[in-house]
Amino acid sequence: xxxxxxxxxxxxxxxxxxxxxxxxxxxxxxxxxxxxxxxxxxxxxxxxxxxxxxxxxxxxxxxxxxxxxxxxxxxxxxxxxxxxxxxxxxxxxxxxxxxxxxxxxxxxxxxxxxxxxxxxxxxxxxxxxxxxxxxxxxxxxxxxxxxxxxxxxxxxxxxxxxxxxxxxxxxxxxxxxxxxxxxxxxxxxxxxxxxxxxxx
Length: 200
Fold this sequence. Notes:
The chain has about 200 residues and is an alpha+beta fold. The chain folds into three domains: about 5-45; about 50-130, K homology (KH) domain (GMP Synthetase, Chain A, domain 3, 2-Layer Sandwich); about 130-200, Ribosomal Protein S8, Chain: A, domain 1 (2-Layer Sandwich). Helices cover about 40% and strands about 30% of the residues. The chain is built from five helices and nine strands, in the order βαββαββαβαβαββ. A three-stranded antiparallel beta sheet has the order 1-3-2, covered by helices on one side. The chain has a three-stranded mixed beta sheet with strand order 4-5-6. Helix 4 packs across helix 5 (about 165-175). The two termini are about 45 Å apart.
């Protein structure tokens, strides 16, 4: 749905008209305010914000406020999935030790976006390729754990605690590469862990 025009005798009336069509979450600008023979007429242009556009603008503002030069790439997929890649120099502070700040940063952006939209948005942010490199190491670790399970004929194995975004990667890697196994998260933050189990 693109931009739509709504009119009313006041801004509030025009906004209420837009709300009845677009729901609670929309943005608008006043395009015309005039007085005629029949009274005041206000015209607004309203639209539903696009999650990927909001994410990119928010991240650009944060990088600018931090004094960092960064290029931000955003891809939005079906079912509200948004992938962000941020490239630049001197961005290690946004990653933190073992990616802990990146985990917090991603969670913060995710919560801000959830406040703007009715439907949940699944957000994934990678900075300077850190997650991509980490995913390769996690895949190697998973392979070794599964080989160990098979050599010992174990039904399951529990991994060490890891941050939220690493758990997401592990769940995805096991699903994609090891169909005979499944995963589940358990425990409380910051010690939440993953268990890898044989299927059946």
